[in-house]
Write a structure and sequence with these properties.
This protein is mainly α. It contains 14 helices and 2 strands, in the order H-H-H-H-H-H-H-H-E-E-H-H-H-H-H-H. It has helices spanning 3-18, 23-26, 29-45, 51-56, 59-68, 72-78, 83-89, 93-96, 111-135, 139-148, 153-183, 195-219, 236-254, 257-265, and strands at 100-104, 107-110. The chain has a two-stranded antiparallel ribbon with strand order 1-2. The radius of gyration is 23 Å and the shape is globular.
């Protein structure tokens, strides 16, 4: 399986994840979208040294992954190329901020190390929450939720068509790669001399497929805007989920629960 086929397989896996049936999947797309956005804003509002406060926010993705039936290992696998970028943001902090702010026995921890761990944890939590939203919500329902938030129809349409067309483009790349390797057996990758013609053929084939897709959309009644769909199961459960989740986020932001418990047991 070449890289294009692997990418196509992973895209299909995302559609399969969003088609699962679980309590999280049955929440309305609008409630999950609002909770995710609010969660990311709260996580990013913590101070650079507030590691214990950010740690409490990990309860949300932990519980949601358990309820959704989606493995957290799947999230790590799908986002493995983004995690190093998050780590790179604060990798030099331990060398720039040398002020000692914490002592664990004989071990002294400087502020740069704490801020680096905080940045890394923030990034991981936001990434896991975003992945959970996409993995537990169908793209049509998510776009319908965006329209309910009055996001411009043009942006929503571009977002949906881009998501849908990625799989078509990837399929074309896979077919062309197979055809190339059948004509050049034993060769690894695509020769540099063939890059121009390969990309040119890919552009032409993509334009043809795009025209076919657009004609099919017109035949199905498309007139510049997708018809409104139901964004999940709108129910009282979705409202309770959204209100309860946001209330917990605010509580965790205003009250440092680990420090509070520590002050009760350590005098």
């Amino acid at each position: 399986m070449n890289r294009a086929e692997q990418a196509l397989y992973e895209l299909k896996q995302m559609d399969e994840l969003s088609a699962m049936d679980s309590p999280v999947h049955r929440f309305s797309a609008l409630s999950k979208l609002l909770v995710t956005v609010f969660y990311i804003l709260i996580v990013m509002s913590f101070g650079k040294y507030d590691l214990t406060g950010v740690f409490m926010m990990a309860l949300y993705p932990y519980l949601m992954y358990q309820l959704s039936g989606i493995s957290f290992a799947t999230c790590l696998h799908k986002t493995k190329y983004v995690i190093p970028l998050i780590a790179f943001v604060g990798i030099f902090n331990p060398f720039l901020d040398r002020e000692i702010i914490l002592k664990l026995g004989t071990v002294s921890v400087n502020g740069g190390t704490i801020s680096f761990l905080t940045i890394l944890l923030k990034g991981m939590l936001c990434l896991s929450a975003s992945f959970l939203l996409v993995a537990s919500t169908k793209i049509d329902d998510l776009c319908a939720a965006l329209r309910k938030l009055h996001i411009p129809s043009l942006l929503v349409t571009v977002f949906m068509l881009t998501y849908r067309y990625i799989s078509v483009l990837t399929e074309e790349v896979a077919v062309m790669s197979d055809a190339y390797h059948l004509r050049a057996p034993g060769q690894k990758g695509i020769a540099f001399q063939a890059w121009g013609s390969f990309l040119g053929q890919l552009l032409l084939r993509s334009m043809d497929r795009a025209k076919e897709l657009y004609d099919a959309m017109l035949l199905r009644g498309y007139h510049g805007e997708f018809p409104e769909t139901h964004s999940g199961h709108s129910s009282g459960g979705s409202l309770v989920f959204a209100v309860f989740s946001i209330a917990c986020f605010i509580l965790f932001r205003l009250v440092n629960i680990p420090a509070l418990f520590g002050s009760l047991f350590v005098r």
